[in-house]
Amino acid sequence: xxxxxxxxxxxxxxxxxxxxxxxxxxxxxxxxxxxxxxxxxxxxxxxxxxxxxxxxxxxxxxxxxxxxxxxxxxxxxxxxxxxxxxxxxxxxxxxxxxxxxxxxxxxxxxxxxxxxxxxxxxxxxxxxxxxxxxxxxxxxxxxxxxxxxxxxxxxxx
Length: 157
Prior knowledge:
Elements (H helix, E strand, L loop, with lengths): L1 H28 L12 H4 L4 H14 L2 H7 L7 H4 L5 H14 L4 H17 L5 H17 L3 H8 L1
């Protein structure tokens, strides 16, 4: 039984971490947020950045709680400077694809975003770091979105 209790504690902790992570987005983008008046805006505060957005969406995906996803994801946006940063394009595409997947959006949009990121990864050599991690994640998401079970099992067994 202690294993089950720690499992519930892990889920509760992850849920709380997601709720805490979503708060800066709600403050910045949710007109109904009771704390909106405290926000100076994401472009000025820098509290909503690409790496945090990427991490938050992965946490939401790993929790797999549709109610929390429906409540949270609509407010998660990228700052304009991140959207226009060509050096971060692969991760921007990952974030946009994840956001689309979590909102049960159009698979063809996610496929297109992920294909673009994968093509960019192949065109510009990866030397490690966040680009290597993004490539692996994009490849995994691409096999899921395209429902390519054989490739998924080959790469992720």
